[in-house]
Amino acid sequence: MTFDLLKKAVTEEPVLKLPDYTKPFQVQTDALDFAIGGVLLQDDHPVAYESRKLNDTERRYPIHNKEMTTIIHCLRVWRHYLLGSRFVIQTDNVATSYFQNHKKLSPKQARWQDFLAEFDYVMNYKPGKTNVIADALSRKAELATLTRVTCDFADRIKEGLNHDPLMKNLMEMAREGKTRKFWVEDGLLFTVGNRMYVPRWNSLRREILKECHDSKWIGHPGTHRTKAIIERSYYWPNMRSDIDAYVRTCLICQQDKVEQAKPAGLLEPLPISERPWESISMDFISALPTSEGCESIMVIVDRFSKYGMFIPAPRDCTAEEVGRLFFKHVVKYWGLPRSIISDRDPRFTGNCEDHVKCYRIRRSGNHNSTFTPVYISGSKTMGDPPSPLLSVNPETFIRHWSSIEFIEL
Ligand SMILES: [Zn+2]
């Protein structure tokens, strides 16, 4: 007996059956204000269901276009069932049933006709009353769009009214008509968007946050979705920052959070320098008390010998100034290093083009700034500058002439 019932249950609606490609298909569709639905049938038994919400643009369509949107959507989804055999489309809109015979088409309707051209179909009118399944499907999706958070908080909000002075003031203002942003309805305070004002009383706000974030029906959504859900029904001042703080500190969210940031690569050790002043590191110690017009110290350390140089620098040290100090205190005595390790401070990375040009330095794009000096060779005397360099920038050249003397000549 039970087995017979079971057999009956699995062979009847709403259980789907497998499609039989030798038999003709029927497509039933229906559209409502917010949602559309359709069912694919064979011998009056459903093969597939389909429903979805309409987007903002589609909601503004006239009803016959909504119906056509439904048909196009269903045919797109069931294309693999319907191509190659003749089928029937049943719609509950008379105007839509004459769509094939329309003489004057809008560009959108022309596109639809173009899409429908690959199908072999007949369109019939079927009143809504007989089109039960599709109607129910579109209503179900429509209900889903209208769902709001409503709990038994209303009574407690009323109770909390006397405990929140701000809410009391607002209610008085609303009653006296001094504000248009708030109004009173059934002893509750409402604001724009028909949202209920929640008083600051007895962890009421926290309970709402818990209900809209921790419950099983919602399942810990992120900040944006939690905000959207709560803001649909409730309002209180600074609610967004409260929601932010709540979601940020939710233990379950923290434990299950998916890391969005790209994982950092392996640490690459720096190459070991082989001789002094081949590779140096550079950084600033800043925000020091002013002394002789300087408020920071530029620290340069040779990575081979750990010899450190501490150069006083002004507070707002520009890239140009860094370059000047670098040449004055480092290059002059030790020559140009092959690599400079820095924290990619713009003062280092955007460094002293002029100075570099003067030394004919080739710069390669490594992870550190790497300079390869091309030394000036010549048999000129110390007071006789190499003439091609003068064409770069005479002023810069003269400024560094002393450095070149000491290093090379
Ligand atoms: Zn959470």
From TrEMBL:
In terms of InterPro entries, this protein maps to: DNA/RNA_pol_sf, Integrase_cat-core, Integrase_H2C2, Retrovirus_Pol_polyprotein, RNaseH-like_sf, RNaseH_sf, RT_RNaseH
Domain of life of the organism encoding this protein = Eukaryota
In what residue span(s) does the Integrase catalytic domain sit?
272-409
Query: Which processes are annotated in GO (biological process)?
Result: DNA integration
Sorted keywords for this record are: Endonuclease, Hydrolase, Nuclease, Nucleotidyltransferase, RNA-directed DNA polymerase, Transferase
One GO MF term on file is:
endonuclease activity
Matching entries from Gene3D superfamilies are given as: 1.10.340.70, 3.10.20.370, Ribonuclease H-like superfamily/Ribonuclease H
Q: Say yes or no: keyword Hydrolase present.
A: yes
What is a single Pfam family found in this protein's UniProt entry? RT_RNaseH
Q: What is this protein called?
A: Integrase catalytic domain-containing protein
